[in-house]
Design brief:
single chain, 335 residues, alpha/beta, Purple Acid Phosphatase, chain A, domain 2, 6-stranded mixed sheet, 7 helices, 12 strands, 32% helix, 21% strand, globular
Length: 335
C-alpha cells in the first residue's frame, strides 16, 4: 500500500510540476465535474480488470489543477473507504491545491464515503473536506448557473431526512426557475437514475425522488451523476442525463442487449474522464475530457451544447407566434 501511495504521489507531482510556473490567467468561469476517483478495492479486482487506475486519477487531478476551473464538483466515491484517514491523504493534497489556486470545491456523498460499520466516521471525514455539504441537499451558483447537489444514499438517510430533502429539492427547483439571476440549473447526485452498467444498475430511488422535478423544471437542462464507472449520455423526455464515473475506479462493463437504455454516446467509452461545463450566452457547452494513453494529456473528444431556459423561452415564443400566424391565416382566432 505504501508503494501505491508513493506511485500516486510521484505521478501527481510529476504532472503538476510541469505547469507550476505558468502565470495566472483571467479567472475561468468553467465548471468541472468528476466522479468515482476512489482507489480500487481488492474485492473489486476479483471480477473487474485494473488499468493503471491510481495513475489515471493522478493525471485527472493534475490536469484539473492546470486548468484552474472556477468550481469543481466531486460527485461521490471520492475515496475507497471514507472512514479511513489514510485513503484521504492524496485527495487532501489535491483539494488544498485547488483552493489555493482559487478553484471552489463542492462534493456529494457517494456510497464509498458511508461504507461499512464506521459510516458516521466516513461522513464526518467527508464533511471535513467539503464543509459546504448539507446531507439533505444544497446549491452552489457560478456565473448564473445553479448546481443542485443531492444525497442519493437513501439507505443511510432516515425517513425524516428523505422527506426533508424531497421537499427542499422541490421548493428549490421552483425558486430557481423563478429567480431572474439564474439562467440554467444542473442537478447532481452520486447514483445514476439511468445506466447500462452490469455492475450497479439504475437507481430507482433517484428516479422516484429526483427525476420528476428535474424534468418539469424549465431551467434544469443537465443531470450529472457517477457510481457507474463509465461514460454514458441519455436523453429522457428531451432532457440530458450524463454518467461520468471515470475518475479512476475500475471500469464497468455495459449491457448491450434489448433491455439496455439508448445511449447517445455509443461510440465514446473512455475508461477515465471528467466533464467541463461553460456558459456562453444562452448555451451551456458540455465537454468530456478523456485521458490519453500517456495518462497525462487529455482530449475533449465528446461535446454537446445545452440551450438555457432564456433561449428556450425565446424559441417557444417564436414557435407560438408562428403557430398563431398559421391559425390566423386560416381564419381561426386564438382564445
Amino acid at each position: 500500500m505504501k508503494q501505491k501511495q508513493f506511485l500516486f504521489c510521484t505521478a501527481f507531482f510529476a504532472c503538476a510540476f510541469s505547469f507550476a510556473q505558468v502565470p495566472v490567467e483571467s479567472p475561468s468561469k468553467k465548471l468541472y465535474f468528476v466522479s468515482d476517483t476512489q482507489q480500487p478495492m481488492l474485492v473489486e479486482k476479483l471480477w473487474l480488470k485494473s488499468n493503471n487506475n491510481l495513475k489515471a486519477t493522478a493525471g485527472i487531478f493534475a490536469n484539473i489543477l492546470k486548468e484552474k476551473p472556477a468550481h469543481l464538483y466531486m460527485l461521490g466515491d471520492v475515496v475507497g473507504l471514507g472512514s479511513s484517514r489514510r485513503k484521504w491523504k492524496n485527495v487532501d493534497m489535491f483539494l488544498d491545491s485547488c483552493r489555493k489556486s482559487g478553484t471552489g470545491v463542492c462534493g456529494v456523498l457517494g456510497n464509498h464515503e458511508v461504507m461499512g460499520r464506521r459510516k458516521k466516521k466516513g461522513e464526518a471525514n467527508f464533511q471535513k473536506r467539503f464543509p459546504m455539504n448539507v446531507r439533505t441537499g444544497y446549491v452552489s451558483v457560478t456565473d448564473s448557473v445553479a448546481v443542485v447537489l443531492l444525497n442519493s444514499n437513501f439507505r443511510k438517510l432516515s425517513a425524516a431526512d428523505v422527506a426533508a430533502q424531497k421537499e427542499w429539492y422541490k421548493q428549490t427547483m421552483t425558486s430557481l426557475d423563478a429567480a431572474d439571476s439564474i439562467r440554467a440549473v444542473i442537478v447532481c447526485c452520486h447514483h445514476a437514475p439511468f445506466t447500462n452498467s452490469k455492475i450497479v444498475g439504475c437507481s430507482h430511488k433517484v428516479q422516484d425522488y429526483f427525476v420528476e422535478d428535474y424534468i418539469s423544471s424549465k431551467k434544469a437542462q443537465l443531470f450529472i451523476t457517477g457510481h457507474a464507472h463509465a461514460f454514458e449520455h441519455f436523453k429522457v423526455k428531451g432532457k440530458d442525463f450524463v454518467v461520468i464515473g471515470g475518475g479512476g475506479g475500475l471500469n464497468q462493463p455495459l449491457k448491450k442487449d434489448g433491455k439496455s437504455f439508448t445511449d447517445v454516446a455509443t461510440g465514446y467509452k473512455p475508461p477515465f474522464h471528467y466533464l467541463s461545463v461553460q456558459r456562453t450566452g444562452d448555451l451551456l457547452s458540455v465537454t468530456s475530457h478523456a485521458i490519453n494513453d500517456d495518462f497525462q494529456s487529455f482530449t475533449g473528444k465528446y461535446q454537446f451544447d445545452v440551450i438555457t431556459a432564456s433561449q428556450l423561452n425565446l424559441a417557444k415564443t417564436a414557435e407560438a407566434a408562428t403557430e398563431e400566424d398559421k391559425i390566423k391565416s386560416s381564419g381561426t382566432s386564438l382564445k
